[in-house]
Amino acid sequence: MDDGGRLTGAVVVYSDVTGLVEAVAANEELVSNVSHEFRSPLNSILGNIDLVLEDSDGLSALTVQRLGVVQRNSERLLALVSDLTLEASAALKVHPKRTDISGLVETSIGSAQAQAERSAVALVADVPSPLWAFADPLRIGQALDNLVSNAIKYSPDGGTVTISAAGTENWVKLVVRDTGMGMAPEDAAKVFSRFFRAESARDAAIPGAGLGLSITKTILERHGGAIACSSDLGGGSTFTMTLPVESAG
């Protein structure tokens, strides 16, 4: 207030991180610009860490270990920046073509192997080869990587993550199932909402911004497909992606 009693400004205080993230995300241009500004220094950090670790003979084991921690967390931040960039853009494009889904599963398992070993999680695939669908390999690979990574992350006590698939004349169903902590059915119904985090994940202090599954859902819908989740608290989660075998056009 000024001397005349007129309101001249306001201060908004957010009581939780989710409210702050939602407020920032409401301004798409700001999110896009901030994400871009974060990406350059993060790439620089990762590039220099990679160079140091490539020539680590003169470093102590403890130093290498600590640099590894910095590397993993920098990679996590870079993935979050990528998610924010995608979420800020309404123009997430897909370029589907005839794609062998079994090859994408093999690549995804290879990428997740180190994370699975650190978490004592076994990765199992049950996918016929070849298995053809009309899909953008880059985007569906991204969606699959996100589901497999989440399945490992939400299995903090170890367990098994199974990737299975089957096809019909018109559709391919790709399933990622884990034996981890799971979530309440009411949380499973909201899990594809932007910034949503299940109560079980918050209680276990598992990091995340609640963007990955929202983006995954968008990717599947842009293909003319769908994604669904079923889960029980303490009983693991199952995510089912459905993709068309042929172009709708």
What's the structural blueprint in terms of helices and strands?
Layout: H1 17-25, H2 28-54, H3 61-88, E1 97-100, H4 101-118, E2 121-126, E3 132-135, H5 137-153, E4 159-167, E5 171-178, H6 185-188, H7 199-203, H8 212-222, E6 226-231, E7 237-244
Parallel strand pairs: 2-4
Antiparallel strand pairs: 1-3, 4-5, 5-7, 6-7
Helix pairs in contact: 2-3, 4-5, 5-8
Radius of gyration: 21 Å
Poorly predicted runs of 5 or more residues = 11-15
Overall body shape: globular
What's the mean pLDDT score?
80
> In the CATH classification, which architecture of the largest domain applies?
2-Layer Sandwich
> Helix coverage percent of residues?
40-55%
Query: Total number of β-strand segments?
Result: 7
Q: What order do the helices and strands follow?
A: HHHEHEEHEEHHHEE
Strand line-up across the major sheet? 2-4-5-7-6
Percent of residues in β-strands: 15-25%
The CATH class of the largest domain turns out to be Alpha Beta
Number of helices: 8
CATH superfamily of the largest domain: Histidine kinase-like ATPase, C-terminal domain
As for the number of domains, it is 2
